[in-house]
Design a protein that fits this description.
5 helices; alpha+beta; 231 residues; 5-stranded antiparallel beta sheet; 22% strand; two-stranded antiparallel ribbon; 40% helix; single chain
Length: 231
């Protein structure tokens, strides 16, 4: 499959604002938002490629501009998903601990993913080399990037900002692709570690008979967010 505009994206987190907002951390993101659940996102429109072709030589490369704009769109979508799921899991943990959180994640993660994808006009998903849900198994190119993330981690790169993007040519059309690594935090180990409670293990076996997403330690790459959008 031919690819173009291959980029490794390790930019910093979204810019902070002066507005006082709630702050929390989830899957390597620090989120600041005024309340729980999905928040309206304002995405700048993409600059038409045709208009960019005639820019003076000192202007940014059109392909780089598109990748930058699409990467910002992808990060915003990932942030909306993660903050909404975090709110659901936090409430579930308060009401019934990790066993309850597993059940809530099982029933809400996919609907939230679909909602964000529809609102943002893209396709959002999560994948892992050790997936829990069969729907989160990577395809060939996603597996390649997940493996490259492991190599980048071994070379000392920070997981919090580890990302990748490209524009790929598919059947004569262009598709933007973006992946961001998901670090394993301490709280993740309650459902993804090696020393889970018998109740958690039993619940996972019930809901995910083929579960492979255990045995992690803090700081491992647990998977990645994936965003694709046809250009």
């Amino acid at each position: 499959m031919p690819r173009s505009s291959l980029q490794t994206d390790s930019s910093a987190e979204p810019e902070r604002t002066g507005e006082k907002q709630d702050e929390s951390n989830f899957d390597g993101f620090v989120f600041r938002y005024p309340g729980r659940g999905l928040q309206p996102l304002i995405n700048p429109p993409l600059s038409p490629v045709g208009n960019l072709k005639n820019l003076p030589r000192d202007q940014p490369d059109p392909g780089a501009v598109i990748v930058s704009e699409e990467s910002s769109r992808a990060r915003a979508a990932i942030g909306a998903f993660a903050s909404a799921l975090q709110a659901e899991l936090k409430n579930a943990m308060q009401q019934g601990g990790p066993v309850n959180a597993i059940a809530v994640c099982n029933t809400t993660a996919m609907p939230i993913t679909a909602e964000v994808s529809s609102e943002q006009g893209l396709m959002l998903s999560r994948v892992s080399l050790k997936n829990r849900n069969p729907a989160n198994a990577p395809n060939d190119w996603q597996r390649e990037i997940l493996e490259s993330f492991e190599n980048r981690k071994a070379a000392g790169e920070e997981l919090a900002t580890m990302a990748w993007s490209e524009v790929a040519a598919i059947d004569g059309k262009q598709q933007f692709r973006f992946m961001k690594a998901i670090p394993t935090g301490a709280l993740c180990l309650q459902c993804h570690g090696s020393n889970m409670s018998p109740e958690v293990s039993a619940r996972l076996a019930e809901l995910y008979p083929g579960d492979k997403a255990t045995g992690y330690t803090e700081g491992d790459i647990r998977g990645a967010f994936v965003v694709t959008r046809n250009l």
